[in-house]
Design a protein that fits this description.
The protein is an alpha/beta fold. The protein has eight helices and 18 strands.
Length: 331
């Protein structure tokens, strides 16, 4: 019986505005470019869905918000052809088109067979963990955000699973309860997906590091971070691996000066007997569309940047022709 699996973690997928417009002229596989074969070889791709999939035109108006994202319903095909099997809904854009947009998104994902967590019809559902069954692994997933407090679900209102990203007792009790429930459900690997922190930050604050370490010590195997729109360091802690921020992967965002918003990585995790054993970081260029594998000087520059980011975290990095490797197996 197979007891291994390959997971790919990606950052933000913002499928609205220019991406949805481009879908009218291109097939869904076009957006993934020459990265698509790699995604297809994985058992599952896991990402953050940065915005609702909905036809609703009722924008969030209960508090000020600069940007409102909305993807056309057809955009779910981009997820399907990219082998995206699970998405985080806990973020600061999921209610851009109010509760109706969130509920439409959940319905669209359910119909497409794509799992999700981090938002729900009420606070209990938003905080509930979920299971992803793969041929060689049962993956347990949970998600939360510290962005956009006004989007937080309530006992009688849909919304996101909002928490403060500190190692306080309330937050860690949620982690412990969720890990326990996932293990009881048969999860061999537990993933915590976090949309945390402000945009464009190059490194995680100490409070995030403390929270991530505490979560790993309570049984989380992988921290899947996103929100900054730029890649941050990777860290090994105990038996777990922390992807502090996985950046962007598909979007139409304006390119910020002095920040690496046009490049990212495909984070490819190999799991054996429920334990992460190897993480490959494959550099990609996000812009201009479609997504593409980095080559030549661009490849070397992206790798060098990650080496620099990880320098203060004690993370072992091995150079490979495709990118970088982080060995994870330990005695």
């Amino acid at each position: 019986m197979r007891k291994s699996a390959r997971l790919i973690f990606l950052g933000d997928l913002m499928l609205g505005r220019g991406v949805s417009r481009a879908l009218r002229d291109h097939p869904p596989e076009w957006f993934w470019g020459d990265v698509l074969p790699m995604l297809g070889r994985a058992d599952a791709v896991i990402a953050n869905l940065e915005g609702p999939i909905t036809n609703s035109d009722t924008r969030w108006r209960r508090s000020w918000k600069a940007f409102h994202f909305r993807a056309d319903p057809d955009a779910v095909r981009i997820l399907q052809c990219g082998n995206v099997r699970f998405v985080c809904l806990a973020n600061n854009h999921m209610l851009d088109f109010s509760e109706a947009g969130l509920l439409d998104t959940m319905s669209a994902l359910d119909a497409a067979g794509i799992g999700h967590t981090g938002a729900g019809r009420d606070a209990t559902e938003a905080a509930a963990p979920a299971i992803l069954e793969l041929p060689g692994l049962t993956v347990g997933l949970m998600a939360a955000t510290d962005n956009m407090r006004d989007f937080a679900a309530a006992p009688d209102r849909p919304g996101t699973n909002y928490i403060e990203m500190t190692d306080g007792p309330e937050q860690l009790q949620w982690v412990e309860r969720s890990v326990r429930a996932l293990r009881q459900a048969g999860a061999g690997l537990v993933v915590l997906s976090l949309h945390w922190g402000p945009n464009m930050r190059l490194s995680p604050p100490r409070s995030f590091r403390r929270f991530a370490h505490a979560a790993v010590e309570r049984g989380v195997d992988v921290i899947h971070g996103h929100s900054a729109h730029v890649v941050q360091a990777v860290e090994r802690h105990g038996q777990g691996v922390i992807l502090y921020d996985t950046g962007n992967v598909i979007d139409d965002y304006w390119k910020f000066p002095f920040r690496a918003t046009i490049t990212s990585f495909v984070f490819q995790l190999d799991v054996e007997a429920g334990r992460p054993v190897r993480l490959d970081l494959v550099p990609v260029r996000i812009h201009s569309a479609p997504l593409s594998l980095a080559r030549g000087r661009s490849l070397e520059a992206i790798k060098a940047r990650m080496v620099s980011l990880c320098a203060g975290f004690g993370t072992p990095l091995v150079d490979t022709p495709e990118g970088l490797e982080i060995p994870l197996s330990r005695p």
